[in-house]
Amino acid sequence: MKFKSILRPSITPSIGFLREEARLFFAKRKAQAPAPKMLWALVTVGLLVSTGLSLTRGSPAATAEELGLPPAIVKARLLSLDEPVAFAKLSNLMVQAHDAQPGLSLSYGQLNYEQLIAWLNLSLVLDPTGQYPLMAASRLYTQGSADKARQRKMTDWVAARFEEDPARRWPWMAHIAYVAKTQFKDQTLALEYAQKLRLKTESMPSIPAWARQLEIFFKIEMKDSDAAKFLIGGLLQSGQIKDAHELWFLTHTLRELEEGKR
Amino acid sequence: MLALIRLTLLESWRGRSGRFLVMALIAVQVVASFAVQMAVTESLELRLTTTAFLYRLCLIFALGVAMIASVVREHESGFVYVLLAHPISRMHYVLGRILGYGVVALVAVLAVMAVMAIWVPMAQWGALAVWTLSLWLELIVIGSVALFFALGLRNMVGSMSMWLAFYVFARVLDVARTMAASPIGQDPNGVAAMAGQWTFTVMGWVIPPLGSYTRSEWLVGSALPSVESCLLLGSWALVYGLICVVAAAIDFYRHEI
Known about the structure:
- The complex is a heterodimer.
- Chain A is an all-alpha fold.
- Chain A is built from 13 helices and 2 strands, in the order ααααββααααααααα.
- A two-stranded antiparallel ribbon of chain A has the order 1-2.
- Chain A starts with a helix and ends with a helix.
- In chain B, 38% of the residues are buried.
- At the A-B interface, α3, α4 and α6 of A face α3 and α8 of B.
């Protein structure tokens, strides 16, 4: 009871105010001159005709639409009023959503990878520090629903873009080396990617050791112990390895290779 | 003049600008959240660049249109005659308008900064402050240009068209100059190409490159412009605003009342 009496002063004016507003709303409309009946008839006929036209047209059928080629860089800057990074980020979303069209879900095998690569390229040019295009290329567009030729196009594109900025793009290079090894089952290609990764990053201590030395571990797995020993020995000799744990690990691995334990 | 500034602020408040600002702040975040939901990576960068881009456009258009609409409405309703019947000069009228607009713009950009600060990492708050200041300077330029066209043309459609054309051109000026400097399919030393280059070069001397202001990539870790560039752009915006205000006053003095 006490609770209700506290609330009542605050609720009652609000309800009264709303009631008054509603009364004014309808009173205003009542006071105005009613519209001629002809106008009401016209509106009704128009709505009926519109419905009839819609029924005649039928329901739209879902058709796969091509992504198309992206605009030129200059055009993209003009369209975005010279905000290239915002354009790049939004175009990433648009490209990513392309496989889910109204009423359709396309598999990656149905997509035009040349056009996809053109869009991903544009995004990288407009936003060079962006990771989205490389993530999409190495993880999304190499999935099993795309055929081997398409997947290979994507990995080759990632490899080419990696060389432009290895310090930032090394994770994607490592990923496609992994994809080549486990998904493509192409050891030669995996070694090629891993070698490229090593050559571009071996003088960059900020890159994790496992990435810089991926090629060595691939060779060990392939039982190519001579090549693995050569690479490890070269690394240890070069003096590039400063971390004590990493030194110990590589020395230990080299010893095991020499003793034939790997 | 203080009274005119206060009048501009009251007009802005009674025109429900506060509510529109709040709605815009929320609507842009909703749009950005929708976009972020679709992203599989870089969601924070996507949110920051999208909201920065949209907030910039919203404030530019809302405040520019508000300036033109209020000045044209004053002329059409005759309220400007009431104001000028008081002992204030036309210069005071123009200054009062632009200073009042400057305060409204400052409130708007501070509100945007407060909302953006929720998402921007603390390490980037310096960049956010620079971005906010740049946005305010851009609004000052755009507001003074809107005032110039509104006072000169005293027509809603004409003023908005000219103001919009100015803004779009100022935004893409750097791109246009780049295109003119490297024409494709044309002899770069030909008459047409040279004429194009000179046209855009002269326009570049006259119009500030608004494309270099308030860039969304400043908020996602890209390098801020150097101190010299910031000072150059900042002083350019203030000088250009002054030029437009003085030009608007000169034009206003010419008109018969």
